[in-house]
């Protein structure tokens, strides 16, 4: 069977296309309020992060261009967002995709998603009182909480304007729902009852809302912009991929919170526990060691709780492995969804990216 390294490199494949990304996003977020521009631009220039999301959107755009829209074969193109020049027998094909109006809108969606992501991180660091992000000081540390709140709001406002400019009501609706989910996930985390704190199901549900939703809605939107119908098998496969990819991503993130050092992560380590949150590794340890359960339920707020929980986690022979298997399970489901789409280099690059997500070390 094929080796992962034989598949196309996802980041290389979109490198050139993401190049103008930073330049145009700088323009997109400029305002006549210097402090807001500074705070916002900061995150798109020097500290641009892994760019997972725009990479996924870009690759997904290519992947869906290689799929024939259902019911569109030989039919007149009806979707208003596409110009005739894009079409070949009514279909945006891989051949005429790059440089087309459809492609431009999908690239714009990638930028919108990254803006939403960065806005949520700026706010998240205020909520979590985390002082570092992407290897440097968080916006609220560089400036103040007030500036961080406004910078996040501003980015969100800009993202909304750009979203409206796509002139696709279904996509606006879907992405607005993604925003709603992000906030719902944070609230769920904040308000979790002692029982919920112990439940794997609540943990996964919260992870869906706060992480997977953005990428899964972005993937469906990419398919829609590509001319695929809302309920089409293509759009559904895209969304399913995003759902499982997002969960795998978050579970891996939660594992790294225990296993990686802060200087590698570019943000604080052991952050979840310090916030009183239990993620997959601790939840599995608590299934094994009864004495952890009351600690989880009281959010590790008594002296020595965190130490006790960490010792149990390191003592457990299975907890960390089970967490890794959970990430692998979702990665496999993401792969299964991709395999329902026709083979293309972009699809294969997404397969490889799925592997990268569960083996990444930062
Ligand atoms: C990171 O999680 C945070 C999120 C995935 C979402 C944060 C969402 C909000 C603050 C709601 C407001 C949303 C918008 C769009 C302004 P984490 O704290 O587990 O990860 P970390 O280790 O990277 O900090
Ligand atoms: C840090 O993202 C944020 C999180 C770990 C929580 C939110 C995650 C998502 C919304 C991502 C879903 C992503 C995929 C790929 C399915 P990060 O580690 O990507 O931060 P960076 O942008 O600074 O690299
Ligand atoms: Mg948080
Ligand atoms: Mg955080």
Order of adjacent strands in the largest pleated sheet? 1-2
Low-confidence residue ranges: 74-90
Q: How many strands, which pairing sense, and closed or not: the largest β-sheet?
A: 2 strands, antiparallel
Query: What does the oligomeric state look like here?
Result: single chain
Amino- and carboxy-terminal Cα gap: 28 Å
Q: Count the E strands.
A: 2
Proportion of β residues? under 5%
Number of helices: 18
Bound molecules: farnesyl diphosphate, magnesium ion
Provide an overview of this structure.
This protein has a two-stranded antiparallel sheet. The model is unreliable at 74-90 (pLDDT under 50). The protein is globular, with a radius of gyration of 21 Å. It is mainly alpha-helical and 362 residues long. The protein contains 18 helices and 2 strands. Strand 1 and strand 2 form a beta hairpin. Helices cover 69% and strands 1% of the residues. It has helices at residues 10-28, 34-42, 52-65, 94-97, 101-127, 139-142, 145-165, 169-191, 194-198, 200-225, 233-259, 262-265, 271-274, 280-288, 293-297, 305-315, 319-339, 345-359, and strands at 132-133, 136-137. Helix 3 (52-65) packs antiparallel against helix 5 (101-127), helix 8 runs antiparallel to helix 10 and helix 11 runs parallel beside helix 18. It starts with 9 loop residues before the first helix and ends with a helix. The chain binds farnesyl diphosphate (FPP) (2 copies) and magnesium ion (MG) (2 copies).
């Amino acid at each position: 069977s094929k080796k992962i390294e034989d598949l196309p490199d996802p980041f290389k494949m979109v490198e050139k296309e993401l190049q103008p990304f930073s330049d145009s996003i700088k323009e997109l977020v400029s305002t006549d309020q210097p402090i807001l521009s500074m705070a916002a631009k900061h995150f798109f220039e020097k500290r641009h992060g892994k760019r997972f999301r725009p990479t996924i959107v870009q690759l997904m755009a290519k992947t869906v261009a290689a799929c024939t829209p259902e019911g569109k074969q030989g039919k007149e193109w009806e979707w208003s967002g596409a110009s005739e020049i894009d079409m070949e027998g009514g279909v945006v094909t891989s051949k005429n995709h790059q440089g087309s109006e459809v492609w431009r809108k999908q690239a714009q969606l990638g930028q919108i998603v990254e803006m939403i992501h960065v806005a949520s991180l700026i706010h998240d660091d205020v909520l979590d009182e985390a002082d570092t992000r992407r290897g440097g000081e968080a916006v609220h540390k560089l400036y103040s909480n007030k500036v961080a709140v406004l910078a996040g709001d501003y980015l969100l406002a800009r993202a909304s304007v750009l979203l409206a400019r796509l002139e696709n009501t279904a996509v606006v609706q879907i992405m607005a729902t993604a925003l709603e989910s992000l906030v719902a996930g944070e609230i769920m985390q904040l308000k979790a009852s002692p029982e919920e704190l112990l439940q794997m199901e609540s943990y996964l549900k919260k992870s869906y809302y706060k992480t997977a939703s953005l990428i899964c809605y972005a993937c469906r939107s990419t398919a829609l912009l590509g001319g695929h119908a809302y309920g089409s098998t293509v759009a559904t496969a895209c969304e399913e991929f995003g759902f499982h990819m997002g969960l795998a991503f978050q579970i891996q993130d939660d594992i790294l919170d225990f296993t990686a050092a802060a200087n590698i992560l570019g943000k604080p380590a052991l952050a979840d526990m310090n916030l009183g949150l239990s993620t997959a590794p601790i939840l599995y340890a608590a299934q094994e060691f009864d004495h952890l359960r009351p600690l989880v339920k009281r959010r590790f707020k008594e002296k020595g709780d965190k130490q006790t929980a960490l010792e149990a986690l390191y003592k457990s022979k299975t907890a960390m492995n089970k967490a890794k298997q959970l990430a692998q399970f979702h990665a496999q489901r993401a792969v299964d969804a991709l395999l329902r789409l026709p083979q293309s280099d972009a699809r294969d690059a997404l397969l490889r990216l799925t592997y990268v997500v569960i083996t990444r070390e930062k």
